């Protein structure tokens, strides 16, 4: 007969927490992280609203799922449920992925005196940073108090870290960057490029530029459309296809019609298989002025596609100018024209840039690299967690020679910051 609380002798579990019921970059990041942590031998669960895409993805992948609903900023029900989990299920770390759940995680750990709260900041400018007046003051106070009770703060890029510390400089010693990572798209079966091009009315030999983004104002899709209008002056057979949905779809369709670009520029809506879409293209362009990270960058690089992106946000950390793609000033359609034309003028060089992008992806941005760096963060605050290591067979072969120095550097940074904040 098992003894009471026998589970406490097992290594602590990790709970990845969100109250969002959408499926976007943050939620995809959580799923990739959970799967890679499991691959490291770490016991992990995801907590999210019961009716959500994350719940479906957990069921499909055999991941433990905990239902936690969203009930406002100060969510008493969520805090009570997290307290119960900390007491009954040996969760050693609650890793929150937005501001509301950071509050719930930090309070639950403080009230139970169990577990450690870790928070990942996914945005350069989260919604509360745009507030003004008394409400802004209240939110600043809440975030200051909760930040004190959060054991580690993870930023997904140096751009996100810099913006976060500009708002909260007191937390510099507990803030660290762990870049996003994704599973290698080339592990999945890709549809034949000829079939993909035919579906999207792109001739087999036509220059094909792909884009995938939400059709929202901050993505500045209109800048890419304006740039492509000028690209067509020199490349009349070139084709631009934009995947994604959003509030601006009708407005963008009207813009395409007004410019008489219907034969060359099309919005193709939401795609289940973006990987095959990118794989069939010659280049990938993203006009958003300041991405906090940009998983699309990683997808394009992994699929050997050169990139055109804006120099704001995290793009310069990921894309090497002139080697894996071109960076242009935000909102500068003329610069985007020149960058796209460079790729179209020299297909052989564009292919080399795509290959260089894949090598960079394998070296730095697989989800295995992300999981190992994240485990190091957990181990800096919680004991008895597995070593942040994977068998060599689980890693891309090209990444192995550079792995150890990078991990040792990350571990030293975490240890230094842990000592400074103790």
Question: What report would you give on this structure?
Answer:
The chain is α/β, with parallel strands linked by helices and about 425 residues long. It is about 45% helix and about 15% strand. It has 16 helices and 15 strands. It has helices at about 25-40, 55-60, 75-90, 100-110, 135-150, 160-165, 195-200, 220-235, 250-260, 275-280, 295-300, 315-320, 335-345, 345-365, 365-380, 400-420, and strands at about 15, 45-50, 65, 90-95, 115-120, 150-155, 175, 210, 240-245, 265-270, 285, 290, 305-310, 310-315, 325-330. The protein has a 7-stranded parallel beta sheet, sandwiched between helices. Helix 6 (about 160-165) links the parallel strand 6 and strand 7. Helix 15 packs parallel to helix 16. The longest helix has 22 residues, at about 400-420. It is elongated, with a radius of gyration of 22 Å. The two termini are about 40 Å apart. Residues about 390-420 have low confidence and may be disordered.
Q: Give the beta-strand count.
A: 15
Helical stretch tally: 16
**Uncertain spans, ≥5 residues at pLDDT below 50?**
389-422
Distance between the termini: 41 Å
- Across the major sheet, the strand order is 3-2-1-4-5-6-7
The share of residues in extended strands comes to 15-25%
| Mean pLDDT across all amino acids | 88
Structural class: alpha/beta
Helix content: 40-55%
**Major sheet details:** 7 strands, parallel
Q: Rg to the nearest angstrom?
A: 22 Å
**Spatial shape:** elongated
């Amino acid at each position: 007969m098992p003894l009471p609380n026998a589970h406490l002798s097992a290594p602590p579990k990790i709970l990845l927490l969100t109250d969002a019921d959408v499926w976007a970059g943050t939620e995809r990041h959580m799923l990739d992280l959970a799967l890679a942590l499991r691959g490291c031998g770490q016991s992990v669960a995801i907590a999210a609203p019961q009716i959500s895409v994350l719940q479906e993805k957990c069921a499909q992948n055999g991941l433990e799922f905990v239902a936690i609903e969203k009930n406002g900023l100060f969510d008493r029900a969520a805090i009570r449920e997290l307290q119960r989990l900390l007491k009954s299920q040996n969760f050693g770390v609650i890793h929150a992925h937005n501001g509301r759940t950071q509050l719930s995680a930090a309070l639950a750990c403080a009230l139970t005196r169990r577990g450690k709260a870790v928070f990942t900041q996914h945005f350069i400018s989260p919604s509360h940073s745009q507030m003004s007046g008394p409400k802004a003051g209240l939110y600043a106070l809440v975030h200051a108090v909760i930040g004190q009770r959060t054991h580690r703060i993870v930023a997904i890029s140096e751009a996100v870290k810099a913006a976060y510390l500009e708002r909260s400089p007191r937390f510099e010693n507990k803030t660290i960057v762990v870049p996003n990572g994704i599973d290698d798209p080339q592990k999945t079966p890709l549809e034949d490029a000829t079939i993909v091009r035919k579906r999207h009315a792109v001739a087999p030999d036509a220059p094909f530029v792909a884009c995938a983004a939400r059709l929202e104002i901050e993505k500045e899709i209109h800048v890419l459309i304006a740039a492509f209008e000028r690209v067509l002056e020199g490349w009349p057979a070139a084709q631009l296809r934009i995947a994604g949905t959003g509030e601006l779809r009708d407005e963008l369709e009207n813009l395409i019609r007004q410019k008489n670009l219907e034969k060359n520029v099309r919005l193709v809506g939401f795609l289940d298989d973006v990987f095959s879409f990118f794989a069939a293209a010659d280049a990938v362009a993203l006009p958003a002025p300041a991405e906090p990270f940009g998983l699309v960058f990683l997808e394009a690089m992994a699929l050997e596609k050169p990139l055109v992106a804006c120099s704001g946000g995290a793009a310069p950390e990921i894309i090497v100018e002139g080697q894996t793609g071109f960076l242009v000033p935000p909102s500068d359609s003329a610069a985007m024209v020149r960058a796209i034309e460079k790729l179209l003028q020299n297909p052989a060089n564009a292919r080399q840039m795509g290959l260089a992008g894949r090598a960079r992806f394998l070296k730095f941005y697989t989800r295995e690299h992300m999981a190992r760096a994240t485990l190091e963060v957990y181990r800096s605050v919680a004991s008895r967690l597995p070593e942040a290591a994977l068998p060599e067979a689980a890693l891309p072969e090209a990444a192995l020679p550079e792995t150890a120095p990078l991990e040792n550097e990350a571990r030293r940074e975490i240890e230094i910051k842990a000592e400074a904040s103790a």
